[in-house]
Specification:
The longest helix is centred in the middle third of the chain and has 18 residues. It is built from 11 helices and 21 strands. It has 2 domains: 220 residues, P-loop containing nucleotide triphosphate hydrolases (Rossmann fold); 170 residues, OB fold (Dihydrolipoamide Acetyltransferase, E2P), CATH 2.40.50.140. The chain has 447 residues and is α+β, with helices and mostly antiparallel strands.
Length: 447
Amino acid sequence: MTRAISLQDVSKTYPRGPRVVDRLTLDITPGEFLVLLGPSGCGKSTVLRMIAGLEEIDEGRLLLDGQYANDLPPSGRDMAMVFQNFALYPNMTTRDNIGFPLRIGSPGVDHRPRVDATARMLGIEDLLDRLPGQLSGGERQRVAMGRAISRHPSAFLMDEPLSNLDAKLRTHLRAEISRLTQELGVTTIYVTHDQAEAMSLGDRVAVLRGGVLQQVDSPRVVYALPSNVFVAAFIGTPRINLLRGLVRAPLDGAMTISLGKQFLRLPEPLSLDHQLLRVQQGREVIVGLRSEAVRIAHHSAARPGEVPITGLVEHVEFQGHEILVHFDTGSSPAVVPELEAPRPRPGRPARRRRDGSVLTRLRERSGAVPAGRAGPVLTLDHPEDPQGAATADARLPGDLIVRTTPDLALRHGMQVPLLVDLAHLFVFDRHGDRICPHPARQPDLGE
């Protein structure tokens, strides 16, 4: 038996602390594998513990198979939890650890057949008589998973179960977890801050920041159509290139997005997405380009939808199967304060302005959030301390990272022609919300 789980406007606030989870609404269908993804401290584990009954829900409702479950004790929820630190009993053998919840639930019954079947499923039959201290990290995590599986629960709750393991073992166990959950068909909620785990495991990915749900969708859609700049930057390796841009839409000329010393000329006739950018005339925006959206090629080789720019090679990272080239294009990286922080810092009071309507100034003064936004993301702003900003941006050379094949011979200082594929161009407003592609557009996964 598997289970439907529904969170409706759920909130959690600790005494004398911030609101950890803020009006979270999320529906998990029976048998679904949902990943809660976000930086450490964003509220992922708190959500998991509220579902398990280990934390009280301050506001909102938890429904299990459509039934109100806020006050249901953990023992009555029929869920199994796998922890980050394994949580094995050190004085019990593998067999006893796996069979412990069975003995508690049904004392006096012979549970050896179920324990043996679980061990075979996980490939740890030869470890049944060993103590946890005699096992490696990967073996202990298999035992912890076996203890959860042996109960035949209606839902698995996994709280970063692979974060303490080395990279090779994490990759191997990811595949095992995916196989096991598909075979068992049990509803699974998996918490992680590792985007590689989220993208490879989840049927859907729910991205959290500051306890606020930013986006929930399939891994491919979250990558292809991030709802805001935080999601775009958090998912993808290397991180998406974020550049400060200025939209220029003259009535008698081509529309362009200025990137400082260079510009992107939007081809005519304008696509629907690019037509909608006209309302951003004269406004600063954040331009997002993933590393695969730009290729190294002569400008004469441009395909339909590609526009030329040039870049100066600043650094080359050899990755074996590919290289990552850092270019200086004369663009200004977008300053997005605390983009990778688990929760946004409370906004500063808006500066008084003489321009704009009375209504606009009142909205700025009140700090009103536009309707339909998932929550605070960021505000594009000029750094108050240019020297500090320069230091922060000096982590990586250049302003544009491009992924390419390792057969290209590139060296520092080379001037290289680049082609930007506008079909993969992201444009975000100064608050970080995506405005291009249009929010209503469905992704073409064949692009």
